[in-house]
Amino acid sequence: MDLGFVSRAISRTIKRRFANIERLACIILQVRFLLLPRKPARQPPISAKMPSHKSFMIKKKLAKKMRQNRPIPHWIRLRTDNTIRYNAKRRHWRRTKLGF
Q1: Which DSSP string corresponds to 22-91?
Q2: Is pTM beyond 0.85 here?
Q3: Do 1 and 33 belong to one domain?
Q4: How many structural domains are present in the chain?
């Protein structure tokens, strides 16, 4: 009996099975990619969200910060001979948060 023929036949069947397994693994990965839910967009932490119902104290603080956040009046420039040119404590709503 020729053992080389047997070993070649076995290697052929192994190659076919591995090819089928590789194809099957590829299909499984594709199906998993299609069926798994995608990650939702990153949301800010819960503590950073502003509640819809504000307490009166928070509302007062927000109102004060809103009043402070404005350019200096023109007469201040005239009174100080242009040494104070702008409001150094001006705050942008997106860049600098109040922290309460």
Answers
A1: HHHHHHHHHHHHHHSPPPPPP---GGGSPPSS--HHHHHHHHHHHHHSSPPPHHHHHHTTTS--S-TT--
A2: no
A3: yes
A4: 2
Q: Which residue has the tokens 């409001």?
A: 87
76 part of a folded domain: yes
Per-residue pLDDT of 34-56, as tens digits, reads 666 666 667 666 666 666 789 99
CATH code for the domain in which residue 74 is found: 1.10.1620.10
Domain that residue 70 falls in: 53-91
Amino acid in position 58:
I
